[in-house]
Amino acid sequence: MSITILAIESSCDETAASVCIDGYILSNIIASQSVHEIYGGVVPELASRAHMENIVPVVENAIHSANITFSQIDAIAFTQAPGLIGSLLVGAQFAKSMAMALNKPLIAVHHMQAHVLANLIPENKPDFPFLCLTVSGGHTQIVLCESPLKMKVLGETIDDAAGEAFDKSAKLLGLPYPGGPLIDHYAATGNPNRFHFPEPQVAGLDFSFSGLKTSILYFLQNAGKSLIYKEKFLATKDERQQFIDSNLPDICASIQNRIIQILLNKLHKAVVETGVNNVCLAGGVSANKGLRTSLVNMGAERGWKTFIPDFEYCTDNAAMIAITGYYKYLANDFSDLRVTPTARAIW
Ligand code: KG4
Ligand code: ZN
């Protein structure tokens, strides 16, 4: 008997729905919210309202594209945590209503666990155990995954996430939100070794990105006039803008290079410490072309097996919720209708 899961993701600013049958993704529909661009970040209240508008057409589209009927659905999976509470509530309430209307079980999914399991969507899946570097707008983690539902966080950021490091750097450069893809774009034609930003010294497998952001701020305020990052305001506003305009690709490539080095140095340390050399990427920042190429090259040099989800499964999507829902279904891990979303969640 085949198992059909309808999944809903609404933790931040993408309203998404997906259908999977026996772990094969049949549809993956995402409505992104452009309303936040002018604010330089996601505005929670506007995100909740946009989810309300999008959720019905997105779910209908997912069902239609998968060419199934509502009666075929065996369970409804949804993102329970972590995320923006207003956004999560829209998806959770919708999922509960569908579960009640169809009289089908509900499966609550952890968003970060789902990012990791996006690596189980393609035919070419990693063997267990594997390590996953999960890099998103809200998280940066190295996870040891022993089976689909058995995961352990080995290290994580103590301040900003890698995606925030990209987005905040982009904001300092005057680029719109989300800045990560734009830094990626400009970096492609820049020199990654032109400007040198300091590498934070953080114990163990944890990360820190807030110092990098400050050093970029001072660097720009100096408009390249001083490489001593603590000196600031050496340049006028015009000089600063001129410096950015004439060096944007090199600045982006140098920032991206440092972020990638921070991430991959810790990942390397995790491989050495655990002896696990099946290595995966996950989360929105894994869409970054520089990071993808660097991981593949590092893996080839060191004899790792590397796995990176397709672009559509890197940034927030419901296919990763569907695949997680599928494994939870197999494990009989259901939730009752009293389950509530939470903004923060421990593993
Ligand atoms: O996983 P995700 O879609 O949402 C969260 O769960 O946070 O990640 C969003 C983050 C944003 O910070 C965005 O700038 C970043 O992923 N991102 C990128 C790229 N595409 C998305 N960062 C660098 N390069 C990219 N190509
Ligand atoms: Zn995410």
Outline the low-pLDDT stretches: none
List the total number of helices: 9
Count the strands?
Answer: 10
Mean pLDDT equals 94
Order of helices and strands: EEEHEHEHEEEHHHHEHEH
Q: What is the CA–CA distance across the termini?
A: 31 Å
For the biggest sheet, the summary is: 5 strands, mixed
Helix content: 40-55%
Order of neighbouring strands in the sheet with most strands: 3-2-1-4-5
- Characterize the overall form: globular
**Distinct small-molecule ligands in the complex:** 5'-O-[(R)-(carboxyoxy)(hydroxy)phosphoryl]adenosine, zinc ion
Percentage of residues in strands: 15-25%
Work out the radius of gyration: 21 Å
Q: How does the helix and strand content classify structurally?
A: alpha/beta
Question: Topology of this protein?
Answer:
Elements: E1 4-9, E2 14-21, E3 24-32, H1 44-66, E4 75-81, H2 85-102, E5 106-110, H3 111-117, E6 130-135, E7 140-147, E8 150-156, H4 162-172, H5 180-187, H6 210-221, H7 237-274, E9 278-282, H8 289-302, E10 305-307, H9 319-330
Parallel strand pairs: 1-4, 4-5, 6-9, 9-10
Antiparallel strand pairs: 1-2, 2-3, 6-7, 7-8
Helix pairs in contact: 1-2, 3-9, 4-6, 4-7, 5-7, 7-8
Bound molecules: 5'-O-[(R)-(carboxyoxy)(hydroxy)phosphoryl]adenosine and zinc ion.
